[in-house]
Design a protein that fits this description.
It contains no helices and 11 strands. It is mainly beta.
Length: about 120
């Protein structure tokens, strides 16, 4: 059974930093892309960043480029999202996702999802 378990969310002031973690288990993800999406109240789920498990190539939404960094640790089967220079508009529930690739920015490309972790940025 595939499980993606997020952690690391919380409350932070604008300009601060947080690191989210996504622990993956239950299958081999070597051919998969791993991604972070977020959803704010009343808004659609939004792509944040993605990484190829095998090559490490990354893709970012324009809104987070230069501020967020996605990475993975193969030995721990864990994906990270380092978030710096946080803004109030980054407030959302952040979800980890895993899928066979394709359109990385599209939520429908992902087969597995975590339960989400809340990130709140105060002004």
């Amino acid at each position: 059974q595939v499980q993606l378990v997020e952690s690391g969310g919380g409350l932070v002031q604008a300009g601060g930093s947080l690191r989210l973690s996504c622990a993956a288990s239950g299958r081999t993800f070597s051919s998969y892309a791993m991604a972070w999406f977020r959803q704010a109240p009343g808004k659609e789920r939004e792509f944040v960043a993605a990484i190829s498990w095998s090559s490490g190539s990354t893709t970012y939404a324009d809104s987070v480029k230069g501020r967020f960094t996605i990475s993975r640790d193969k030995s721990k089967n864990t994906v990270y999202l380092q978030m710096n220079s946080l803004k109030p508009e980054d407030t959302a529930v952040y979800y980890c996702a895993a899928g066979p690739g394709g359109r990385r920015w599209f939520w429908g490309s992902y087969d597995y999802w975590g339960q989400g972790t809340q990130v709140t940025v105060s002004s």
